Amino acid sequence: MIHSRRTRARPEEDPIPTLRFGVNYTPRHGWFHAWHDFDQGRARDDLAQIAGLGLDHVRVFHLWPLLQPNRTLIRTAAVDQLARLVDLAAEAGLDVLVDGVQGHLSSFDFYPEWTRSWHHRNVFTDPEAIDAQADLLRTLGRALTGRPNLIGLQLGNELNNLIEHNPATVAEVDHYLDTLLAAARDGLGSQGLVTHSAYDAAWYGDDHPFTPEASARKGDLTTVHPWVFSGGCASLYGPRSPQVLHLAEYGTELAKAYSEDPARPVWVQETGAPEPHIPAADAPHFARETILNASGCENLWGVTWWCSHDVDRSLADFPELEYTLGLFDAEGRPKPIAEALATTITELRAGSLPAEPRETALVLDCTPSTRSVSGPGGAYFEAWMNLRQEGVRPAVIRADRAEDEAYLAARGIKEIINAPL
To answer: What angle (nearest 5°) sits at the alpha carbon of residue 321, between those of residues 289 and 109?
Structure first.
């Protein structure tokens, strides 16, 4: 059923937004274990390679156990290493977002010993554990502030990956996020963004305690990590399917539906081409189409690829897909996907592919217990993708906003479609 609505006039063609394009930095030598013996020369070489692709920023990660090995000890030397990496990025012409609590990285979880075994603490609910993480973020913010290439401070990488071993309720997660975001802002002062991130269960997982509302309303912007293996997207539809090629675009539009601010920016902060979900031969096409499709979303902050360098196969026990996710191979050579990324970004910066407004929206009607309808294989997801294949570029609106004239006007929506049940 289609409802037509009158809204404010919009220009025939929106100008190209100033989009940011970057990559999540994975050190070529030693992966994130490189922090144990930080080598400035190697980091400088890696960052120069990244800048050579025309990227403008990196997202970087230190390891929580090395930063805070005791609840009341934050190692000055480790903080100084991180600050030095930010400065090296500046020398290469790159801006930097710093993730604070790691936490989870590429299927490995990094906990300080004071949270484990005989000293086990739930990192989301234990008051002293929360205070310690807040202290760490406050310290990092104070150490990094004033650097002109600092984008901001993020709480950590996909912290909801830790929920299985640290169960928490929605209210407890919200308190955790609010406390840590306030600490990060206290450390940074007025400079830069303060953000948090979650993997796709926050958007698709029924009753997951990290909620879409938390992602879309807490912090200075919304981050999304639309991975093609989440919900089995690539296996359900195929690596060259519209569902896969439009996944980052969809994730951006879904995130916008949960925001109370129609102009809130959304950052596609992780997307990549994991083998075998995306075969190597298809990776350049996937990268190009993913970026072009996402770039058509209004209020997109930017796209940050995962990741810069392949994991060296001399390192054991990674899932197979982690060894081939880089733009550069383990020898530092750019892969075809890097060339496709660089070419696409150059085209977008030249303004050859203008964004278009989304005047049609598909209504999402779900509860926390039926959130999976919006994930791959779900009825809503498939309805949105069907419209996209028909040439419609649908926005997403929640059912409780479908009759809100002011909200629809603010988003430029003139027509709404009720999704099939």
So the answer is: 115
Q: Break the chain into its structural domains and give their ranges.
A: 15-354
CATH of domain 15-354: 3.20.20.80
What single letter denotes the amino acid at residue 198?
A
pLDDT tens, N- to C-terminus, the chain (421 residues):
333 322 222 233 333 448 999 999 999 999 999 999 999 999 999 999 999 999 999 999 999 999 999 999 999 999 999 999 999 999 999 999 999 999 999 999 999 999 998 999 999 999 999 999 999 999 999 999 999 999 999 999 999 999 999 999 999 999 999 999 999 999 999 999 999 999 999 999 999 999 999 999 999 999 999 999 999 999 999 999 999 999 999 999 999 999 999 999 999 999 999 999 999 999 999 999 999 999 999 999 999 999 999 999 999 999 999 999 999 999 999 999 999 999 999 999 987 555 677 999 999 999 999 999 999 999 999 999 999 999 999 999 999 999 999 999 999 999 999 987 6
Instruction: Give dist(CA 344, CA 341) in Å, integer.
Output: 5
Alpha-helical segments (H) within 259-282:
none
For residue 377, give Cα distances in angstroms to 201, 231, 241. Answer: 14, 7, 13
